[in-house]
TrEMBL record:
A Gene Ontology biological process term: photoreceptor cell maintenance
Family matches, as InterPro entries: CYTH-like_dom_sf, NadR/Ttd14_AAA_dom, TRPL-trafficking_regulator
Ranges of Low complexity composition bias in the record: 76-92
Protein name in the entry: AAA_28 domain-containing protein
Domain NadR/Ttd14 AAA as annotated: residue spans: 130-257
A GO term for molecular function: phosphatidic acid binding
Pfam families membership: AAA_28
Region Disordered, residue ranges: 68-96
């Protein structure tokens, strides 16, 4: 079998209830697989495209209810039919069209299948919700097919992440209308559910099990309260029951581990061995590497990326926002990251994929107190352990000259941790959690001894300070 036949195209649906972590999860999943050398396509959520254009789903439902009410009022017209006062008094007398043709099916509009006249008459009664969902699905299928075709022509293994999929629409209309929509468009729901996508992952809404983290203010198309969010979450999950590879990622762990469990589900289905990187007990560890760099021939198979970081102005002193541009061979992806102080014992970090235009617009908010950070990032696997090595490049502050940092996620400690580290690198020491090796601090223009911007932690801080490494260090939770 040649190399082309061995390439994989994996079609994944990432779905879930409101505030379930889809946006951040999609970004993390994209970065993870790009680091493995995969091509990643992200199919945008069709509903968000339409709703962000001014459509309000609540208005569509209200319009449908008004249409139904009007259709049952004596002496009013609905569609092309006219109902007289005398005819409404006789339940057995059929409503007639203006041209005298019996309106034989409009009384039970959910059973209309083939009669063009009845379909036309039913449009007003079915309401805007039905037509919206029907057009949404037609649009979704065409957009997805475009990405699927691109995946088939890729010269790399390709992961296609669909932000929601075909069956999600069934959660928003009645079963009768859904069945009629399938018949009128010759759609096979079993084929479109079970065979169109390789795997479905449902990210459970924070409204179900992590209520303290549920929020709507940062999503332009989200306005659901907790109760409605739970209902939508259940409906969205139920829509995919029956798919052969359907995984539900609940809120039984903190958010970081929730995202890791999601990535691990995908890797397991694909048969990718990533060691204990995504273990629930794993943590990020960081090491200082001494140059000069080992020759490329000493590395196993690797992927190199150019990475550019810009820190942005923030409203609060303990909030960090940055843009990341990451790419190979002139092809770039863009991420916006916001880090906040701990809430309820969890560090909050939200990552959002950006378009090139949005990236350029947000660059106008760059914080002049920080240098732009330029790095080469090398990603590779050693001993079934996934590593990222950042090699800092100029222009930058002199403190970054020659700096090389190695990162990985693992649950190992002590000698077991040392045993998995790359032997071909000159690892000086572990620097996990040390603020001197934080990218935020490394990018500061001012000298650390003369700045108030140096960040020791985003955690809650006490007022006590101690002197460390020539500059003041806040006491964190009673510990320096």
């Amino acid at each position: 079998m040649d190399a082309i036949e061995e390439r994989k195209v994996y079609r994944l649906v990432l779905t879930g209830g409101p505030c379930g972590g889809k946006t951040t999860g999609q970004s993390r999943l994209c970065t993870f697989f790009e680091n493995l050398g995969w091509k990643v396509f992200r199919v945008p959520e069709t509903a968000t495209i339409l709703l962000s254009g001014g459509i309000k789903f609540a208005d569509l439902v209200a319009e449908e209810d008004r249409s139904k009410k009007k259709a049952h009022e004596p002496g009013t017209s609905a569609g092309t039919a006219t109902v007289s006062a005398s005819s409404t008094s006789d339940a057995t007398k059929p409503t007639v069209f203006k041209d005298g043709v019996p309106e034989h099916s409009v009384i039970d509009i959910d059973k209309i299948t083939t009669c063009p006249r009845c379909m036309a008459a039913a449009v007003g009664k079915v309401g805007d919700v039905y037509k919206f969902q029907e057009n949404l699905l037609r649009t979704m299928i065409q957009i997805e097919n475009t990405y699927f075709e691109l995946g088939r022509t890729s010269n790399k293994n390709c992961l296609i992440i669909c932000d929601r999929g075909f069956m999600d629409a069934s959660a928003y209309i009645s079963k009768e209308k859904w069945d009629r929509m399938m018949r009128s468009n010759n759609w096979n729901p079993v084929e479109l559910r079970d065979n169109r996508y390789n795997q479905i992952i449902h990210m459970v809404s924070a409204a179900n099990g992590a209520e303290q983290f549920y929020a709507t203010e940062e999503h332009s198309c989200r306005s659901e309260g907790v109760t409605l969010a739970r209902e939508l979450d259940y409906k969205a999950a139920s829509a995919w029951i029956g798919h052969p590879y359907f995984d539900v990622i609940d809120n039984s762990t903190d958010f970081e581990n929730k995202v890791n469990r999601m990535i691990e589900c995908v890797c397991q289905k694909l048969g990718i061995d990533i060691g204990d990187r995504l273990s629930i007990t794993s943590r990020k560890v960081k090491f200082l590497v001494s140059g000069p760099m080992s020759p490329d021939t000493s590395f196993p198979a690797f992927q190199d990326f150019e990475v550019v970081h810009h820190y942005l102005q923030c409203a609060g002193p303990r909030v960090q926002a940055r843009l990341r541009k990451r790419g190979q061979n002139g092809r770039w992806s863009y991420i916006h990251t916001i880090r906040r102080p701990q809430q309820h014992g969890q560090s909050i970090e939200v990552r959002t994929q950006l378009s090139h235009r949005d990236y350029l617009n947000m660059l106008t908010q760059q914080d002049d107190a920080h240098f732009t950070i330029y790095k080469k990032r090398r990603c590779f696997l050693v001993n079934n352990q996934y590593f990222q090595m950042d090699i800092y490049k100029e222009p930058s502050h002199p403190r970054c000259k020659g700096l090389i940092l190695l990162e990985t996620y693992t649950s190992l400690t002590g000698d077991k941790l040392k045993a998995i580290l790359p032997k071909f690198l000159n690892i000086v020491k572990e620097v996990t959690g040390q603020p001197d090796y934080s990218m935020f601090n490394l990018s500061l223009r001012e000298d650390w001894n003369n700045t108030k911007k140096f960040c020791y932690s985003l955690h809650d801080q006490d007022d006590a300070e101690v002197k460390t490494n020539g500059h003041s260090q806040k006491m964190i939770n009673g510990k320096a």
